[in-house]
Each structure stands twice: as structure tokens, then as C-alpha cells.
Amino acid sequence: MKQDYYQERNLKNLDRIDGLLQELPLFCEDFLRGIETRSSVLTRLNYAYDLRIFFDFLCKKKFKTKTPRELTLRDLDTVSSTDIEKFVSYLSSYEFGGRQESCNERAKARKLSTVRALFRYFFRKDKLSADNAAKVSMPK
Question: What pLDDT digit, counting tens, does each position of 123-140 carry?
């Protein structure tokens, strides 16, 4: 009986991930598929939610003429350590989906960890420069 619950939950979460991928840059699908064997469905779902906020931030503050879906790895390669610091600060109070949101320090750390995982993944695939992978590893 428990196994049925978890299987059903995973299937629903996979559907949620598919929906979120429609809002994220195309390269996010490669990332989420690439970490599939070493992460749970729930982890990937939470990564997708975190990345949605990160890319929304980038489009509001850095790439103002683009939507998250239009971002490329080349755009991601231009993200600076200052941009990452601004993102962490932004998480204290931001608007998303018409609602005012805020993150405590633990939530900020989790979102930063998600962004770090994304940068590391593409760095290891030789799609981002070494400098960019290090930018996300900086102390707060």
C-alpha cells in the first residue's frame, strides 16, 4: 500500500516537473535528466521550483528583454558573482506569480545550492567556464 502511494506521488511530481520545464530555459531539461540517477523525483521537483525563481530573477534584473524560456547557456555564462549576491539578497523579499514572497536563511541556502548544482553540472559538461562554477561556490 505504501509503495502505491509513493509511486503515485512520484508520477504526480513528474507531471509537475514537466509543467515547470515549460517555463524554464531549454537547457534545464538536460540538467534535470542528467541528475535523474542520483536524485529523487522530489529533489528534482524542488530544483525546478528553485530554478524558476532564479531565472525569473535573472530576467527581471539582468536579461530584461528575455523570458526565462529564452535564456541560453551563453547567457548563463555571463552571470557574475555580483549577480549571485544580488539573487541571494533578492530572496529576502520578491514578487513571483503576483504574490509577495520571502525566504529565510535556510531557504536561501537551498536555492543557492540548487543554482550551484546547475552551474557544476554544466561546468562538468564543458558548457560553462570554470570561473562561473566558482562564482556560485562563493561564501554568502
Answer: 999 999 876 666 676 554
